[in-house]
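__Protein archive entry__

___
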Amino acid sequence: MASYVKEIEVAIDYMEQHLDKPLQADEVARLVNFSYYHFHRIFYECTGETIGDYIRKRRLTEAAVCLLQTERSILEISLDYQFDSQASFSRSFKKQFGVSPYFFRKQRLQPISLQKMPLVDKRLEHRLQQISLQPSFERIKTERLVIGVKEINNLHENQFKQIWERYFQREREIANKQMICNPEVRYGICTAEVPLSLHHLTELTTFYGIAAIEVKEIVEVPEGMVAHTIQPGEYAVFRHQGPGSELRSTYDYIWGTWFPSVDFELDARDNFEVYGAEFTHIEDEDSIILLYIPVRNR
């Protein structure tokens, strides 16, 4: 599908210019000289979303920005972004962001799910090369016990690099006290004291980051480290290929594109990353990190 990059770029640029104008998916296909059916398939396979979904989500994102940055009425914003009525806009908005436009504006919410940014340049390159657009699903049947280093974190500051540095300085202490399950596999875990809703998770929301390794049983936890349990259940597993510095783009796709298009929602278990045999180095272009996202049916 890499041979269609130019056509996709042209189509996205055209859609971005027409978010506040009438626009149909077949019109976009004609622009790049494809039948609607053929370009629909190409666009979906390359980006993980349909042309219509891309237009709708980007319109909703821009409308959300207007709600926060202007005093224009909800009806006016609805019509500007090509919704038939305020009611249809409100339904779509709530499906995308989990709250009504009125509540969103009143509470001045800025959730990470708002970050449905234009799919251009590095974002498009990432979508084409560095992520499995459709996850596999894995049901973890039993608890996994891990021991590691735990620190307060948030998305804005992202202290995971420092957490991993502290962990590797002390990893040998864990192996000295209990049986390691697999010395080639390590876990990066995000956990919170109370369940976090995707629609209320922001750049400054506090959670805990844990860098850890799985053990067969908890015998003794070294001082200053923690034991933690990864809960069983259903997980969507995304495959990220490339440097760790690009992980945020993968999460942005999951939060802003994948979740709004499926009949799953984020479950109240921890999400975690697996650094296994295919992981070579945090900045290696060929390195593989598996992202486990806890899901449940809506």
The chain has two domains: 2-116, 136-297. The beta strands are 136-140, 144-153, 186-191, 207-215, 226-230, 233-241, 264-266, 271-275, 288-297.
